[in-house]
Amino acid sequence: MAQALAGQGQVKAVGVVHAETSTGVLSPLHEIAQVVHHYDALLIVDAVTSLGGVELAMDAWEVDLCYGASQKCLGAPLGLAPISVGPRAMAAITQRTRPVQSLYLDLATVAEYWSARRQYHHTAPILMLYALHEALRLVLEEGVPQRWRRHAHLAAGLRAGLEALDLELFADPTARLDPLTTIVVPAQVDAAQVQRQLYQEYNIEIGGGLGELQGKIWRIGLMGHSCQISNVLLVLAALEQCLAQQGYPVARGAGVAAAQQVFAASALPL
Amino acid sequence: MAQALAGQGQVKAVGVVHAETSTGVLSPLHEIAQVVHHYDALLIVDAVTSLGGVELAMDAWEVDLCYGASQKCLGAPLGLAPISVGPRAMAAITQRTRPVQSLYLDLATVAEYWSARRQYHHTAPILMLYALHEALRLVLEEGVPQRWRRHAHLAAGLRAGLEALDLELFADPTARLDPLTTIVVPAQVDAAQVQRQLYQEYNIEIGGGLGELQGKIWRIGLMGHSCQISNVLLVLAALEQCLAQQGYPVARGAGVAAAQQVFAASALPL
Hints:
The structure is a homodimer. The first copy, chain A, is an alpha+beta fold.
């Protein structure tokens, strides 16, 4: 990245995905922020999958602009993208000379909606805002750090179970994401057939690989409300069955047992 | 308009608001379309307030691109903008050479979402789509032309009532909009005070003038579910009271009586 930014002053902003769902990798935002700011650029973070599921310290990590989504780890209905704009990013927005092409994301005007002037920008989707408010109330009821711990704990159980089924995890151990776990599809297994069977027989939807990873990895999400022990145990039990039917050698019951061992070892109240 | 478009080939598209809510005026779309197409431009129509409330014949009137809103005359919750793209507009979209700046309104990619390829563009706000579906079901249950007639009929009653209170309507009689009626605020009356009183004492919200019309007109909406006889009668009765308290001479009961006369004269089932 340092090299990519070497033409100092030319790069105005760097966009990074915090929780990258096509690979299951977590980005080290604070380290990235230090490089980006060294070159006087702004750091824009996509926290769509991380918000509410893993630690996100926008101010401490010096993130300049951050947006999330309502429907993943926050557990609200689909349709909203919470956004937070830090002082450096806001200065860049208000000081720009070329008008924004999109009214929809004209943040300078949106900001006036919140000013004392209450300048009209858009008709707010009120029902969605009420739904998000209730979801955030539930987040606070659980406690934000406790929510991060729940996602970490259940992902640890899932990973232990998958490895006990002799499956290889895709993401590097140093950068694994809790709300989304990626698995290498064994060579002799039909990835799409397993996904179909999980969906049709167990009502479980897991993702496939995207782009060049198509057919090569699976992606299992544990986000917000769906991040429950019962879901971890069910997906391990179901996956074991699907793999066995395709002739992949699995130690029957090993996945569920390994996950239970992780859960039993923790005092985390779930 | 013909003059404005005289530099043939330079104007690519003309945008028109069908039901203009700041003035209460209905635009003659078919006539405008003929002028616009004479100059080989595309006609883009904002049907936010008209969709579901007044006749809108996109194909017959040769409108090229049309968008509406969920929350006005369709009666669904706020948050969606239905859009329809005709063949000429779609050709312009697919043939453009400069990439669209906004992913959000990249209609060529959105269209691929509906193609056989089902290419991902965005995570759909599913709850809103269900809500819109139910609202459209209710529209069909009433019948689309019947719904237009309901808006026309109740607006006629409202207008008769307002004139019986000796108030002057703002929009030209040849171009008055049914879902929104504009009224000239009498010289000796405090417009904002009337709005406040209507809201506080009767739970009725009417709009004020915007821009140079601020304090000079009122705007009364009768859209979708709110377009009911009871609302027309209540706003006339309440307005009469507010005007009388400010010393404006009103013939007491005249507004309600005039509206009732219009409603009684029609066989329209409400």
